[in-house]
Automatic annotation (TrEMBL):
One GO MF term attached to the UniProt entry: 4-amino-4-deoxychorismate synthase activity
A biological process from GO: L-tryptophan biosynthetic process
InterPro entries in UniProt: ADC_synthase (IPR005801), Anth_synth_I-like (IPR019999), Chorismate_C (IPR015890)
Domain Chorismate-utilising enzyme C-terminal stretches: 75-318
Pfam entry (one): Chorismate_bind
Protein name (Swiss-Prot/TrEMBL): Aminobenzoate synthetase
Length: 323
């Protein structure tokens, strides 16, 4: 097993793409650690699911489980959010995805959580970390690339939840900014960029809760030789806009100052190139091992209209096991 640095990693992805070799890739949030391995030689302790692409059998949970969390306290969260609001007032960012670590406890192993979790995009990496993400990064069909940014979450049990989140001005502003950012990102690698579906609702199981999340679909036309430049293409559009903010460059710099930990692979991306098409997911809903402790990483978007209490509650809602 080999981790590549930024330059080596994207070159390796280019080479595998040029050879039309089916492979799995994993890219850290800051692009400094990259894994790229042909599927035919994939290590036996790496498992993935990208919608209907998977390399492990379905297995249902047959026993109850224990789950508890020890989240950051509200004053600490509020202090970090105030720093971001000051940056917004100064014009350095308009939207920033603020994330925190939450120590958790469960009687299930990482492998069991991964196996039982219900999610569109899942990854198990060598008993080191897992993700069970609802969010696609990019996919291709022919020479068309598509992305589906998610921004906006609400408890489905709240009265008129769907109407409430779709009419919320703060949520609308946040979503519009991310759609605009992702349009720009796809415009870097493609042409004829279109927003094909704007602000549609998806339902996600979050432990005992059901969450509604708001997504959009954006597409662009890729050049004929995009498979030969796959690594170069990915490098240009990473990190994912939905988990950084806008404008991307200055927002990433603020994240480095405000967040008190390394994101690592959390909010990075993973995906499969099958020799013809690409499918990839954003690594959110993420748990990793730190020594003997399990750490869950989660976050949410902050804008000038954000309310600290509701943002803190959203952060907590996203710490769950979808079993």
């Amino acid at each position: 097993m080999h981790w590549y640095n930024t330059k080596e990693g994207f070159e390796q992805i280019n080479t595998l793409g040029q050879n039309r070799t089916p492979f799995l890739f994993i890219i850290s949030y800051d692009k400094t650690k990259i894994f790229a391995q042909p599927l035919e030689a994939l290590d036996s302790d790496i498992f993935y699911k990208l919608q209907d692409w998977r390399n492990y059998p379905v297995k249902k949970r047959e026993k109850p489980f224990i789950f508890s969390k020890s989240p950051v306290d509200f004053p600490t969260y509020k202090k970090a959010m105030e720093q971001i609001l000051e940056e917004i007032r100064s014009g350095n960012t308009y939207l920033l995805n603020l994330t925190f670590q939450t120590p958790i406890k469960s009687d299930l192993s990482l492998k069991e959580i991964f196996t039982y979790a219900r999610a569109k995009f899942k990854l198990y990496f060598k008993d080191e970390f897992i993700c069970f993400s609802p969010e696609m990064f990019v996919e291709t069909e022919g020479n068309t690339i598509a992305t589906y940014p998610m921004k906006g979450t609400i408890d489905a049990d709240l009265p008129d939840a769907k109407e409430s989140i779709l009419s919320d001005e703060k949520e609308m502003a946040e979503h519009v900014m991310i759609v605009d950012l992702m349009r720009n990102d796809l415009g870097i690698v493609g042409s004829n960029v279109k927003v094909e579906k704007f602000r549609y609702i998806e339902s996600i199981k979050a432990g005992s809760k059901e969450l509604l999340q708001v997504s959009s679909k954006i597409t662009a036309a890729l050049p004929e030789n995009w498979r030969d430049e796959l690594g170069t293409m990915l490098e240009k559009i990473l990190p994912a806009g939905s988990i950084t903010g806008t404008p991307k460059r200055s927002t990433v710099e603020i994240i480095e100052k405000v967040e008190n930990y390394e994101r690592g692979f959390y909010t990075g991306v993973f995906g499969i190139f099958d020799g013809e098409s690409l499918r990839s997911g954003v690594m959110i809903r993420f748990i990793e091992k730190e020594g003997h402790t399990l750490v869950y990483k989660s976050g949410g978007g902050i804008t000038i209209d954000s309310d600290a209490k509701s943002e803190y509650e959203e952060l907590m809602d996203k710490v769950y096991l979808p079993l």
